[in-house]
Design goal:
Chain lengths: 336, 336
């Protein structure tokens, strides 16, 4: 599928969905639509991903099959300033794919345009209507289940999940990511945005997800949020218990001391976070934090190496920065 | 408000909402409508609650302002056999109040009758459409905020919340319950069924709830589920962090060793549950478990007294069974 990614005023740092699609997705990205970053190229700022031009609006996008909303703003609301580009894509007969909380298919103008021009509105966060409460059966999954957890949102849980998958596959293992957020869903084409599910059914949704893949060696469940996050800890807990994992990988961003966007809340010392995940998992599974992944994007190579070593010591487990250096052997050894 | 409570074939044991309203509500209950129990009185089977006659249908109900659905069946579906009474109430111009998953306002006949006769259809489980993520501001509430937590579902968190409110009021404090489930919402006439909210917004919903009451001394937040529950721990965590409490009261049922309906999951030793609540609360608030409430309904008086003493020792905090003996002074001292 040939796609354009809409990221207005957010590329690359705040456009997590777009960057994930560029790095791990199977789509051909023909343009990034960002009125602030327009005129440059993806390769100007990102290594090891698909390259594409960045343009100011849909008017400058070559022929594509779909426009994908590549931003996941806090709250998941649709920004009215994106309307002209969504309208233009639909008028060209393209599909529009969105992971927002606001469903595009519920917007009368978009629904009419899609019907008129033959495009589809695909709201990735719309949950199926047959979800129900967890039965407590996820522990029976044959594959080794590893759940990524974090000290905060946006610490790399999704990225680490895909890097672990790729490293496991290189070792010959039959591995899959279990996506729980709209970006992972957009990349893999299946899964559920667990944060959009009725709260009572969130663990049940995850339980169903981990029982879905046919891969028999390793399932890596994409975690969300953090158990120390004042807004998202409920979703984190639902994924932790709903996936009934065999092991946890703790994701953290080097140097981050407070919750992003909630700076009055400190991230507790790393050993306390590890301990809390281990204790909270215990009533449902035997999982403990067996490895760590550190996001060192703001550091130079020397500082990153030091930071990873310090992180491994703090969490008392092997660690790596899988984006900078790939998944370390001892990290993969620890999880499989 | 003068009300009738509909409980067909469920009064009293399966009519938790009706019994809660009779025990803790401010409404004047003029009749219970139960075709099976008709001809008797509430006082024949329940102590310490409002008395009212039980009648077979709305035809036998004196003048009231509202009919309240007093049953919360598993699944929350509307029973067609209740239709004649709901119809009759609307034809008399009464409001009809429901905590069912099936929304009465979406029923064309009921909507037409309400419009024609001037009554309102109030679906307590319908979440407002402007909910969003928590901002982390609940800690700024002036009142002392106490959240009830549990070792499992159905351990008495709602009941304990109302008993604490009443005991605090007897002491002259300006106290209110913050209801997070449909029964509490039906009793108080406000609140939100937090389990019905989109998972990402659950903590935000609770944050909004605790900022709503004007009572300035004590707010008791009704908890849900348990952090050791394989299906509901996410909702529990959202309430714990979204309410940013000053103190926790741990509710437990004497003798219960496994999660009800999930018997392969053990409830951890009580000191471990206390420790886990304290540690999980810590990133967001200073709350710890300061008191306990033990449900001893299956025990005789002597065994109950022993069980409460053992419970207080296990959780290392004052404890009582507020239903059997009222709220103990030292329990109220600990929370205010």
């Amino acid at each position: 599928m040939r796609v354009a990614l809409l990221t207005h005023e957010a590329f690359p740092d705040e456009a997590k969905t777009a960057v994930g699609l560029l790095r791990y997705g199977d789509h051909e990205v023909r343009a990034v639509v960002d009125r602030e970053f327009a005129g440059r190229r993806v390769a100007d700022v990102l290594d090891g991903v698909q390259d594409a031009p960045v343009v100011a609006s849909m008017d400058d996008v070559p022929e594509v099959d779909a426009l994908i909303i590549g931003i996941a703003p806090i709250g998941g609301r649709f920004e009215e300033s994106w309307r002209p580009d969504v309208r233009a894509a639909l008028e060209r007969g393209c599909d529009v794919v969105s992971g927002l909380h606001d469903f595009l298919a519920d917007d009368p103008e978009f629904a009419d345009l899609a019907a008129e021009h033959g495009g589809q509105l695909r709201d990735l966060r719309r949950p199926p209507d047959d979800l129900t409460v967890a039965e407590g059966t996820a522990g029976g999954v044959d594959a080794t289940v590893v759940t990524t957890v974090g000290t905060d949102c946006s610490t790399g849980k999704m990225t680490v999940s895909f890097e672990l998958r790729d490293a496991a596959r290189e070792r010959g293992l039959d591995a899959a990511v279990v996506p729980t957020g709209q970006t992972g869903v957009a990349i893999t084409g299946w899964g559920l945005s667990v944060d959009r599910v009725v709260a009572d059914y969130a663990a049940g949704a995850v339980e169903r997800l981990v029982q879905t893949p046919e891969e028999k060696d390793l399932l890596i469940v994409e975690g969300q949020g953090s158990i120390v996050h004042p807004a998202y800890s409920g979703v984190t807990t639902s994924i932790l218990h709903g996936s009934a994992p065999d092991a946890l990988v703790l994701c953290h961003e080097a140097g981050r001391g407070t919750i992003n966007g909630y700076e009055s809340f400190s991230i507790p010392p790393l050993p306390a976070v590890v301990d809390l995940y281990d204790r909270l998992a215990a009533p449902v599974s035997d999982a403990t934090v067996v490895a760590g992944a550190l996001n060192t994007r703001h550091l130079d190579d020397g500082a990153a190496e030091q930071a990873v070593a310090g992180y491994a010591e703090a969490i008392d487990a092997p660690a790596c920065d899988p984006v900078r250096n790939g998944v370390a052997d001892e990290v993969l050894d620890a999880v499989v």
